[in-house]
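Running log. JK asked me to keep both predictions on one page so they can be read side by side. First protein, sequence followed by its tokens:
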Amino acid sequence: MSDTQVKLILGSNSFDEEKLKEKVTNNISLIGAKHFWDQGYKGKGVVVAILDTGCNYHHIDLKDRIIGGYNFTKESNGDSSIFEDFNGHGTHVAGTIAASINGIGIVGVAPEASLLILKVLDYKGSGTLASLVKAIDYAINWTGPNNEKVNVLSLSLGLSSSQHLNLILLITTNERGLYNQDFLLL
């Protein structure tokens, strides 16, 4: 084996101590989240199901927020217990919603909310309508380890036709009688 050395080359200001400290980004400030945090509203007791590309469940800002997950794709040989994000979008969405107040990284809109990660898109950001329908049904019927229920569905994805999503929601809500439940779709 040769004596080849590997060096980490850092760009300017990389690992700047100020950048490592927790940051409330402009988008979070613009919606007035700090005002609600000061009043005690940080998402505690709220479960958000994120239907996306999965999530990096080891991420320092997210690992304590995730209370469950399920893989509806064929990635990881279809293993339903592996909902790791190989794209990055789902992790970004999860962070925007619920990155923890922990002294480092960023802070999400609801930093005490719990996350149910439902992987419906693969590493290319593609998925099937059937997987999406199964994931919506799963979220609606899911019960957490402490009897939690999903309060919010987050779908940051596109469909070939908006009629598909309207049909999915109509069928799902009619079958489950969700018109009377405290439930929000984003």
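And the second, directly underneath as requested:
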Amino acid sequence: MERMLPNNPNRHTRLTTREVPEKGNRNSGNFPAGRTGAARTGRTSLTLPTHMPIDQWRDLGQHIYVINDSSGWWFGDWLIYGQQHYPDRYKHAIAETSLSYQTLRNYAWVAGQFGVDRRRDRLSFQHHAEVAGLNVEMQDNWLNQAERFGWSRNELRRRIKAGLRPPSEKLPANVRVDVTAERRARWERAAADRGQELSAWIISVLDESVGIWQAESTAQLAPGPAEHPQQNGAPLS
């Protein structure tokens, strides 16, 4: 496929139906033969043939998805190559295009965190970006789960945020206590006297007990009244 230069918005690229990848193989370089004309891409448009069979239209969409999904890796690897081969010239070369160097640096940073053999073709570039700041073991763990359960990028982000939340911010754990029916009945009567549900009453009683315990512990640690030294049976003035 002929590539459109970013700084030439009026140039068009012909995307032929022969370039649609085989279904189910996102990395395939083998494309089935087309039966009609070509789609024509511009900087801000995609023009399709008047009579395009639905299977070609579907496969073209898949091809566009692959290009979009792969572009992050391509840009990242492209910039890394430039940094390695043209250390004194690559920034100037980028400045002559319409590409954003900061955006490219972000792509390159993610690409640099994952060697080609660690990139998951079933997950998007953005999935990898979500875990790029973690250590290798955690990266693989989260990507394994995202791949296994089919998490979206947003779902992965949500779960990482919950998983890395400090213990004090995590949701409270459930506590189960097995008691006799007689004791439960007594607790329910006591809760009713306070106008509380049983669970709320239990929490309030426990909190009160903790407050009493803390007060007693503080009192035990506090120094007692000062004793005045005496001389000849009389306190010193």
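Observation for JK regarding the second prediction: Confidence is low (pLDDT under 50) at residues 1-36, 226-237.
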